[in-house]
Predict the 3D structure of the following.
Amino acid sequence: MDFLNALVAFANFVFIPATAYGAQLALGALGVTLIYGILRFSNFAHGDTMAFGAMVTILFTWLFQSWGISLGPLPTALLALPFGILGCMALVLFTDRVVYKFYREQKAKPVILVIVSLGVMFIMNGLVRFIIGPNDQRFADGERFIISVREFKALTGLKEGLAFKTTQGITIVTAIIVVIALFWFLNRTRTGKSMRAYSDNEDLALLSGINPEKVVMITWLIVAALATIAGTLYGLDKSFKPFIYLQLLLPVFASAIVGGLGSPVGAIAGGFVIAFSEVMITYAWKKVATYVVPEAWAPDSLVQLLSTDYKFAVSFVILIIVLLFRPTGLFAGKSV
């Protein structure tokens, strides 16, 4: 029975939160790796692109809530999500036309585009904070839990309870659907194959008659959709605060690099590696240890390697290790 309690505590505080967080990072990292693989630069504005898409979704969520429109037990944000995606698509296409296209036509080096994306990042961050404010914005409604601690205890009779939030379930299911749809698009459609060909060899793709501007436009549209979905799911699961998305850029980039920049499969794997590393290293294991070790050996301390304040430091350390020893990542993407 104690082993079951330990398993439930592990699932409640480590496995389920890390799986949901990993799905959010994976969706964000997919956007980063698509830009790097196809447009050939590291987009440091991606975190704030996620924030902008989530912000538009929140504004429409509030509008629908004021009209009395809801999805019952599900968050109203799911209804507003398509509008957030459209708003984010408009923003990235405008940014590409006004900013990035000039440097692309000049055949600017990738490092120039990286510096340009830093400027875009600061502008986007200021725009989001100007529109919605710098403070936490909560917009989740509907049922809070799929199963609560009290219901789980009554159902199983265990001492330890498990809470599975609705937002965590939505995150996991949505991520699976989005990833399946993306891989189908890239591998089965003519446009997706054109994007992959352009990524593998730009000159050969151009000789084959592939329209580079179309490839660029489709890439930005997909990235906007991924960024909005990832940003909205993160905001639903935690809360929305513009500055947090600037900090989220580190684990998102770490996920893409650990998996292998330019590799969609690597981005997904990297997201879960980073998420589980952050959660497991910053979790206090005292409760789990109390169930699995003899009472005489029960720890007095929290058995916590790092405080949760250093969560992003875990991503940074993993990123440095990968860059030093395997710069192509786990799935042999493009060298950083």
In short: The two ends are 48 Å apart (CA to CA). Strands lie at 145-147, 164-165. The first strand starts at residue 145 and ends at 147. The chain has a mean pLDDT of 92.
